[in-house]
Design goal:
Strand content: 25-35%
Structural class: alpha+beta
Helix content: 25-40%
Radius of gyration: 47 Å
Length: 635
């Protein structure tokens, strides 16, 4: 509803005119007008006071502005749009709805502006007074009634031009014809006859039927017979004999004629008596089908890769030798490109550990023979596993599923260089000893907003769409990986932010590692190990807090029991002398730090969750999810 009522209210004196729509009661319009008048008088009484004393919710000051809008009323609230024309307020009343789809206040403002045009045209100028309005009261009343229901600019111009005419009826009823003439359209009474003629022609043609004479049909059959190819009588007889032979039932146990038929190769070829056709190779090879070879580009391998804002994140290369989905599932193994194996990034070479007094190896100064108590305990331990003695295993009630994630991160000082998170959905079935039946159920995966890629083991899992999957597999003793996925780098959560700072002053090297936990982790990290790769084997070492030195590996290890989620950043410091000096201008000393941690909980690190296919149905049991660090380094 754009506008419910229009009114003319003098600044001093009673209301001159109130025009409402059919469904809007005039009594409510009078209540809104009375409230508007009281508001004006309140503003007029306190216009000399400061603006802070007034109520800012009432809107603009009617005495200080020529136009504006005001919200009035207590229980029934209305919005009054006003314009002041020489002491006469032209008011438009509408509802207080802040939804633009229900009430368009700009449309109400447009209707008020059209009403102002009517008032100015009736008074022959802006000198609007109650006396002039009373002289043209009937014309103004009828014009405002039309404006309140909506009028175009062309019709409004025609009404204003005939405002001071001889007849009010001419002003009201001739406006439609005037609009049609201005737009260049013809009157309906003049063009109605053409529509009637067209409808009559359509009915006549739709009901008409045409029949051809028999003579015309007979002549057409003769022409068709003369055009058709002539078939000899002998060929017709052969076709009839073949049809009769096909209709006769054949004995399925009768001897075949192919056994007594002599072999014939050249004789079965039909000879062509046309010498021109024999000499033409195109005609001779027309019946042969030759398989076209694929283009050279089809034999090359296709590489599908993904590039992120930090660089290339790897991909999978498809070739003719790798055609199965199983090989693709197993080849999903790039640490920062969506795989699971970090060996390609770190390297598979391992340094052989040497026994020495400077390492962490066990020092043995006594006899090589172990004590008798140790031997006895070893024998008893072999009979009973230590896990069974300490932990009492609970029996499985059904299939179990969990998510194992590995996160690989590389920091360069305080900046994140690259990140990759790889997750695997594992299914643990009932042992084959307990049940030989196949495990089959459906489940749903939620929280996949940040997932970059999904790979399923198609021999066991099939996708049903909309995040629904169906699994069917034989029982197994070990957990079965059924789905692998990787996250987008920009949406990968970091459980720990690490920063490495090194200072080389003279022959003294100082290194500090700062770390802080992510406050949004499900639980604080515990048993975190920080490893610092040293450039040389130090002779003197000063660390804070205490650390363990492994000289054979040239590494320093700190063990942190727990990192609080919302605590202050932690610091690990080390200072050691080196052979080279910064002033010598040699190669820069490279120092790298690694972080190792693992955690379990009811929530996964990536936010991916496993849900049953339908609520209230338990086809599997969701156990604790786990995540651990892969290549978590800073340099």
């Amino acid at each position: 509803m754009s506008c419910l009522a229009l009114s003319l209210q003098p600044a001093n004196g009673p209301d001159i005119l109130v025009q409402t729509r059919e469904w809007f009661p005039p009594a409510r319009a009078l209540v809104a007008l009375s409230a508007f008048r009281q508001t004006r008088q309140a503003f007029a009484a306190g216009k000399h006071q400061s603006a802070e004393d007034g109520d800012s919710s009432l809107g603009d000051d009617p005495l200080a502005a020529s136009s504006g809008q005001l919200i009035v009323g207590v229980e029934s609230r209305y919005r009054v749009v006003y314009r002041l024309v020489n002491g006469i307020y032209v008011l438009g009343i509408t509802t207080v709805d802040f939804d633009d789809g229900v009430n368009n206040v700009f449309e109400c403002i447009g209707i008020v502006n059209q009403a102002v045009s009517v008032v100015v045209a009736a008074c022959r100028g802006v000198d609007v007074t109650p006396e002039k309005l009373n002289r043209k009261y009937a014309e103004i009343y009828m014009a405002l009634d039309i404006v309140l229901r909506g009028v175009s600019s062309i019709r409004l111009a025609a009404m204003l031009a005939s405002m001071h005419g001889d007849s009010i009826a001419k002003m009201v009823h001739s406006a439609i014809d005037t609009e049609s003439k201005i737009r260049g359209a013809e009157n309906w009474s003049n063009v109605e006859i053409h529509s009637v003629e067209r409808l009559a022609s359509v009915d006549a043609f739709s009901n008409a039927t045409f029949e051809l004479p028999q003579e015309v049909l007979a002549a057409g059959d003769e022409v068709a017979a003369s055009i058709a190819p002539v078939q000899s009588v002998v060929e017709q007889q052969e076709q009839t004999e073949k049809k009769v032979e096909e209709e006769v039932e054949k004995d399925p146990f009768a001897a075949s004629d192919a056994l007594t038929k002599p072999e014939a190769l050249v004789g079965d070829f039909k000879k062509n008596k046309d010498q021109a056709a024999v000499s033409d190779l195109t005609v001779a090879l027309a019946g042969l089908e030759v398989t076209t070879l694929p283009p050279a580009a089809a034999t090359e391998s296709t590489h599908i890769g993904v590039e992120g804002f930090e660089g290339n994140y790897g991909g999978i290369e498809f070739s003719l030798g790798e055609a199965s989905l199983g090989e693709t599932f197993e080849g999903f193994s790039d640490a920062f490109g969506g795989g699971l194996d970090a060996s390609e990034f770190v390297g598979q070479k391992k340094v052989d550990k040497s026994q020495g007094l400077g390492g962490l190896e066990l020092l043995q100064t006594g006899s090589d023979a172990p004590p008798a108590a140790t031997t006895a305990s070893a024998v008893s331990g072999a009979a009973t596993p230590l896990e069974d003695l300490l932990v009492k295993k609970s029996e499985m009630k059904g299939p179990e599923m969990y998510i194992a994630e590995v996160i690989n991160v590389e920091f360069r000082e305080s900046l994140l260089a690259r990140v990759g998170l790889m997750g695997v959905v594992y299914l643990k079935t009932l042992p084959p000893k307990t049940s030989d039946k196949e495990t089959e159920f459906s489940f749903r995966i939620d929280g996949t907003r940040g997932v970059k890629r999904f790979v399923m083991q198609s021999s066991r899992v099939s996708s049903l769409g909309n995040g629904m999957f169906h699994v069917r597999t034989a029982p197994s003793e070990e957990p079965i990986p059924i789905i692998k996925y990787s996250l987008l780098p920009r949406l990968t959560p970091l459980p720990l932010r690490v920063r490495l700072i090194k200072r080389h002053s003279g022959t003294l090297l100082s290194v500090m590692i700062q770390y802080v936990s992510n406050p949004d982790l499900p639980a604080p990290l515990t048993d975190v190990t920080f490893v610092l790769k040293l450039p040389v084997d130090p002779s003197v070492l000063k660390v804070s807090p205490k650390a363990v030195l492994n000289r054979s590996e040239r590494e320093l290890r700190w063990h942190v029991q727990e990192i609080p989620q919302k605590g202050a950043p932690g610091r690990l410091r080390v200072r050691m002398p080196v052979d080279s000096s910064e002033e010598d201008g040699g190669e820069e000393i490279e120092v790298a730090g690694y972080v190792k941690f693992s955690a379990q909980g009811t929530r996964s690190l990536s936010g991916v969750s496993l849900l049953p296919a339908s609520e209230g149905k338990t086809d599997f049991f969701e156990v604790n999810h786990r995540y651990e660090s892969g290549v978590y380094m800073c340099d």
